């Protein structure tokens, strides 16, 4: 996808992830029949895909934090700071999943404490025990601590269900 475009009047800046997106694209099943015809997917042997998935699941997936988008944090923060330096924004809105976006927001909020920050949460990060986004054996306490800090710093929090609101 292009690094910059306007979608429905919204300016979209895409940062980071170039290498990981290429690798993921080569290892995942094709989304469209044209990809099969163009042999983009079939160029990687199944044994290589299986090995890569195993290595990912038993190494990287066991140690990354907060989620699989963690490497996106630095380029996203850099671009957000560039945009804030050249524009006057009155609000900041971060959305999860992935939770990494809220970490970018937390860092920006520390730099600009007067900015109103709205946090949109599909499912609270620290409560995702049935489909954890990271290794809860290692990071459970850190997950709670960081999400608690985000709740404290946010001007408003948006959730999708009453059950989530109660929690």
Question: How would you characterize the overall build of this protein?
Answer:
There is one protein chain. The protein is of the alpha/beta class. Helix 4 packs parallel to helix 5 and helix 5 packs across helix 6. The strands form two sheets. It has a three-stranded parallel sheet. Strands 1-2 form a two-stranded antiparallel sheet. The protein contains seven helices and five strands. The model has no long low-confidence stretch (mean pLDDT 84).
Biggest pleated sheet: 3 strands, parallel
Name the strands of the widest sheet in spatial order.
Answer: 3-4-5
Chain oligomer state: single chain
Shape: globular
DSSP strand tally: 5
Content-based structural category: alpha/beta
Average the pLDDT over all residues and give the rounded result.
84
Q: Output the helix-strand order.
A: EEHHHHEHEHEH
Map the helices and strands.
Blueprint: E1 4-7, E2 10-13, H1 18-27, H2 33-37, H3 46-63, H4 73-86, E3 91-96, H5 100-111, E4 116-121, H6 136-153, E5 156-159, H7 162-166
Parallel strand pairs: 3-4, 4-5
Antiparallel strand pairs: 1-2
Helix pairs in contact: 4-5, 5-6
Search tags:
two-stranded antiparallel sheet, alpha/beta, 167 residues, 7 helices, 14% strand, 3-stranded parallel sheet
Summarize the structure.
By secondary structure, the chain is an alpha/beta fold. It is built from seven helices and five strands, in the order E-E-H-H-H-H-E-H-E-H-E-H. The chain has helices at residues 18-27, 33-37, 46-63, 73-86, 100-111, 136-153, 162-166, and strands at 4-7, 10-13, 91-96, 116-121, 156-159.
